[in-house]
Amino acid sequence: MSAPRQLWSDLAEERSRCPVTRHEDVNAVRVTSYAGVKEVLRDFRSFSNRFGTVEPGPELPVEDQVLAFADPPRHSRQRKLLTAALSASRVERLHDAMQQTVDGLIDAIIATGSPDFELISSLASPFPALMTAELMGVPHELRERFVYYSHLSELSTAMPGVYDAELAQWSEMIEELVRQRRAIGPGASDDLIATMCFAETDGQRFSDREVGQMVQLVNSAGNTTTTTLISNIVYALDEFPEQKKLFLSDIDGLVDSVVEEGLRYDGPIQGLGRLSQCPAQIQGYDVPEGERVFGSYAAASHDPDIYERPDEFVVGRDWRKLPPHMGFGYGIHHCIGANLARLEATIALTTLYKRLPGLQVQPGFTPEAVPGWTFRGWTGMMLRYETREHS
């Protein structure tokens, strides 16, 4: 049994026993039903984000309470700004740049002359990092460093502390970019950093520290999400060959459905934690004040009360008639970069399967899962396609 299928089986067994239960492996009350996870994510007054979302602990310093690590009204102010900055229309303006970037990365894969390549390092990781740099207006001469630091940010979630020194340099780099935008003044640029620097809410602007923290969070969380989404879908399609055959018969017509199913079936985020601020209940289960609560997005998206054939990758689900999956979370903390991640994944998958015939996971290769309870991804993904010599 493959790693994802074993995970779905384990979560289903736990859900059937009790969908809300104290779980020692995650040192938290783990919630595995769709209804229960929605309860947690809706009730930000009882279940706070400002203590962290991976392993909630002491309350974060106020200046570090940004987006996923903030509660209203602070979170509301930040989200109002970024929702407009990352709107579907603004993201769509990056379409041509995305296509050119993916084509360039695939050109480099083809230029090696080898039918085998590693997906994450050659495309799935650099692609979203380059697009984030474009969105933020990072100067071209700094983009190689920016991509490198973005990759380290992804790795640091699985290996805490290992890259702290280099990530501190990345923070300094971003802080310098923020200072430069401030010095230029409003109206000189409409990139994301400039937008955050000069946006006003109720007559107040974000501090340099807030802008820097939001830049890092949008970058690290957004890049990790898209990187993982692309590689997870490629792997899932090989796990369900009949569904892959259906997708390949109409790539343009089915790619949107494939991306949504990828987010549901094997989304990048397994779940996130909260800290209870008062005695509360989740589906009738008593949660004491000060308890960690882990909402399992993966389990919620596989709840058989919500989705038919929940543990299968099904191309062509009609998402207009289905409840939203938890691939991007739910409620006020629904992923703010969802539009960006969807478009990036759509362009990457369409181009990969159109330009690299016979694309598949390298025969005999077994991927290694990223450790931990937060992210659902692979440390590497070896693929093979049919070159002209092999076709």
Describe the structure in your own words.
The chain has about 400 residues and is an alpha+beta fold. It has one domain (about 5-385): Cytochrome P450 (Cytochrome p450), CATH 1.10.630. The chain contains 15 helices and twelve strands. It has helices at about 5-15, 35-40, 75-85, 90, 95-110, 120-125, 125-135, 145-160, 165-185, 190-200, 210-240, 240-250, 250-265, 295-300, 340-355, and strands at about 20-25, 30, 45-50, 115-120, 200, 205, 270-275, 280, 285, 290-295, 360, 380-385. The strands form four sheets. It has a five-stranded mixed β-sheet with strand order 1-2-10-7-3. Helix 11 (about 210-240) crosses helix 13.
Q: Hey, roughly how much beta strand do the residues contain?
A: 5-15%
Quaternary state, please? single chain
Supply the CATH architecture. Orthogonal Bundle
Question: What is the name of the CATH topology?
Answer: Cytochrome p450
Set out the fold topology:
Elements: H1 3-17, E1 20-23, E2 28-31, H2 34-42, E3 47-48, H3 74-85, H4 88-92, H5 95-111, E4 116-118, H6 119-124, H7 126-136, H8 143-158, H9 164-184, H10 192-198, E5 200-201, E6 204-205, H11 208-239, H12 241-249, H13 251-266, E7 271-276, E8 280-282, E9 285-287, E10 292-296, H14 297-300, H15 338-355, E11 360-361, E12 382-384
Parallel strand pairs: 2-10
Antiparallel strand pairs: 1-2, 3-7, 4-12, 5-6, 7-10, 8-9, 11-12
Helix pairs in contact: 5-15, 7-8, 7-11, 8-9, 8-11, 9-10, 9-11, 11-13, 11-15, 13-15
